[in-house]
Hints:
274 residues; mainly alpha; two-stranded antiparallel sheet
Amino acid sequence: MIxxxxxxxxxxxxxxxxxxxxxxxxxxxxxxxxxIAFGCQRQGKLQLPEIEVNEIVSLKEVNNSRFHIKExxxxxxxxxxxxxxxxxxxxxxxxxxxxxFFFNEPINPDSAYIxxxxxxxSEVEQDTYYQVYAYFLRKKNMSKKLxxxxxxxxxxxxxxNDIYGYIQQGGTFFGHHDRRMPAYVEYALYxxxxxxxxxxxxxxxxxxxxxxxxxxxxxxxxxxxxDWTLESEKPTRKKEIIIFVNELDSLITDIQYLKEAQxxxxxxxxxxxY
Length: 274
């Protein structure tokens, strides 16, 4: 198993949801108290949906040494002040032991992890697996025309994660999904799916209306079932979460973005039954 001493300590501090609120203030002390006191308890009830591996893949002995680095170290930039650091031996070993990162036809990251990612056994290490997957697949998705698609899909996925994260009042589930998001985005970009935009507008508007309506129902039911929020505060919480629903509504501008939002939603959030 590869050691993960190169991962900065802050990568393990993800026991809370990444909040992207620009339009309202959260009661910080109340939020922190809820996360500390109830986060693990509530999170213990959440189960990742089972993932069916439909792809039939064989891990052949493939020589990927051309991807080896010669420098003493290597790093993957994940964002501002967020970096994965590898020693030369660690990174080259990772390349040798994970040929699924280099398949001509990539498989989705969940299937790839099930196939050959078990040496990344902790949740934080699993985050790292998805981030490395995203790094290598992005090298195949370097076209400039994908920049807008990448940014928009990221915002759509994040909006869905934030909606359910706020309904649940946080939890490690959402923090881990936030860090694995780039892998899902890059896989969607590699697929030609999102570029097939020829559906009738009338059908698109009706289906989008139904989808956004279902999210508003989930917000209403989810907050009503929340025992940790006072009845007097529930209307305010609903309004706060609806901001994310409205953001998602504005991002879904055609049928393919809608289908991708629904696919991502159904793959990762159907566990929440409301």
